[in-house]
Amino acid sequence: MLKSCCVYSTGVLCILFLIAGISLALSQVFQNIVYNRIKSEVVLKNGTDAFAAWENPPPPVYMQFYFFNLTNPIEVLAGDKPAVVELGPYTYREYRPMSNVTFLENGTKVEAINPKTYVFEANMSSGSEEDLIRTVNIPAMTVMEKMKDSPFSGTLISKYMTGEEIGLFTSVSVGDLLWGYEDKLLEMVKTFEPSLDTKFGLFYKMNGTDDGDYVFYTGSQNYEDFARVALWKGQSSLNWWTSDECNMINGTNGASFHPIVNQSETLYMFSSDLCRSMYAVFEKDVWVKYLPALRFVPPSEVFANLTINPANAGFCVPEGNCLGSGLLNVSSCKQGAPIIMSSPHFYQADEKFVEDVIGMKPKKEHHETTIDINPLTGIVLRAAKRLQVNVLVEKIQVFQSQTGDVRTLVFPVMYLNESVVIDDDSAKKLLAVVAEGNVVINIPFIIIGLGVLLGVVFMALMCRQRTPESSPAERQPLLKP
Length: 481
Prior knowledge:
This protein is α+β, with helices and mostly antiparallel strands. It is built from 13 helices and 19 strands. It has helices at 2-27, 29-41, 49-55, 73-77, 138-147, 151-163, 174-179, 184-189, 351-355, 364-367, 400-403, 424-441, 443-466; strands spanning 61-70, 84-95, 99-104, 109-113, 117-120, 132-136, 169-173, 181-182, 199-200, 213-217, 229-232, 266-271, 276-288, 291-297, 327-329, 339-342, 370-373, 380-393, 409-421. The strands form four sheets. Strands 1, 2, 5, 12, 13, 14, 15, 16, 17, 18 and 19 form an eleven-stranded antiparallel beta sheet that branches. It has a four-stranded antiparallel beta sheet with strand order 3-4-10-11, with no helix packed on it. A hairpin with a 4-residue loop joins strand 3 (99-104) and strand 4. The longest helix is centred in the N-terminal third of the chain and has 26 residues, at 2-27. The radius of gyration is 31 Å and the shape is elongated.
């Protein structure tokens, strides 16, 4: 009788465990406990780990520059395709702590600037900052574009350029091309335009400086607003583009994201480098240092032609002047310089731009921008922002001596890879948080597992109880010796 009581008690416990586990799983009680805790802790306020990581990110950030060295300048001026060879990387350690941090509106917003400092890493580079790069003369191309409709001024500048042997192409060191050098043509043009800066560099005035004052939401009122940009340079929208939608400032600055990220989300980011907001969608699950992550990538629609994505019509500047897919004309926010941004090697751009330049070899794994985010905390575990700087090159009649018979094309100058991977110490801390969260979230399934185990034990006991014992006669051998 005692044995039967134990057997049936096991069956009752099995049913109770299964009911309790399934009920807890469906109601998501433990999941909500973990999520609410994460939401309360991932807030930009003094004393939280999230604020400390946002104010001074611990993982090292590296900026790699790859340049396209032109090998046939004379042939290009005669009308041939340019042939380029990729040189690099030239690697810099990037330091980007937040400064002048001030909390606003009862802690719901925080104001800060984000100065960036770059330090050359010779042991991670394939050459030195003194290496010469032959590329398009961007100051010259900018001046020629501005003066092409002014025959008198254009003729004077063209003669000056001929006398000073300033052409469409030039050789500049890596350091000067990045951080700035005095340009003779700009010095001459300054006599006409006193406000003109005589120095030029792709990252001129961007080393040790910031890109403007930001106001971020802290996430204290809504976790989805964590680190979202509210204002940039005192404005809630841009004024470079021709539609309100394209001028919107959406999302974070790309360094942080809100917690509890799911695969169906679209993540928005504002990039001052691109002078616009962009977005990324889920691509696949990945692992980074034993941590689960969701990989998000910008889809091809982000830079697609307006025939594919009509919402991009506002990025056509001047209005109605649209480039092909994969390109973004940022001249309106780069002091009129004919700068066009794209992915490296024209990845996801129209095939025409790849074919116009000999040496372009777009590859998804090398040239795609990726962001790997831990879905529970929203922490960026690994990221690679990859952008290419190009210049629109064309034949200009008044500058015939400089442009010759050059084709109209988008000439690649260089591309960058700004990358970060979570450091080991941060990964260990996050691994403990994720493991604890997973244990709590999976308590209902642990209970269900115990219920299933008790069910197996119950069935075994029932089968054993119902099997009749054999009599002594039945246990005798069939054949006696």
